[in-house]
Amino acid sequence: MLTNLRFCTHAILLNILFVSSSFALDWSGMNWLISDGWKNEGSEFDCVWQSQNVWMESNLLIMHAKSEPYGKSCSEIRTYQYVRRGRYEVEMQAGAVPGTISSFFTYTGEAGSSSHYEVDIELMGGTNLLHTNIWIQGQQFPVDIDLGQYGMSIWSMEKYAFSIDEHGVTWEVFSRYHNHWVQVRRANKRVTSYMQLFINNWISANPHFPPSHYNGYPAYAKYRMVRFFPYE
Fold it and tell me: What ranges do the domains of the chain cover?
């Protein structure tokens, strides 16, 4: 598959206007926007999204987070499309540096408000934990899962998935012990809103999430593929 990275000054895609300092990426059969030159508000993020921290190498998508002379930088992409019910799969290797998070998730709305819907797969650097979470109207329901019980490691290229159906969300991992997909969590919480699909690798400002502290080393998260199978 041909992967094309191009600069967008004033591009209208799917009736959404993106202006200068935005980049578009065609990867894994989807169209993505690369976040560039800004920082999330709030207490969780300790880095600025930079488009130069996203590139292709040996057929892998590389998402970089690192220390900079001005502070810290990180990487994020999101789809132009909004989707809801379906199966979401990713094959990824976390950046794994303490104090960093490598993610695959859906999101919409204003964080913590009634418009906030989100379904998360987050690999927490400095641990071997998969953080699963679902946000419904600004209320979260997190569960952490030890990947070691499935013979998996955030330091290796592994497969993860979640499915959003009419009644809730199911998370799965491709267990190395079983050599097939295994359900690791079910949450009967209805997702009613359409969301964008996100991938990011970032440095946390929260000393409790992940339960490790950033040590200044660069973090390279690697993504082999993403797949989405719609149910509606």
Answer: 15-230
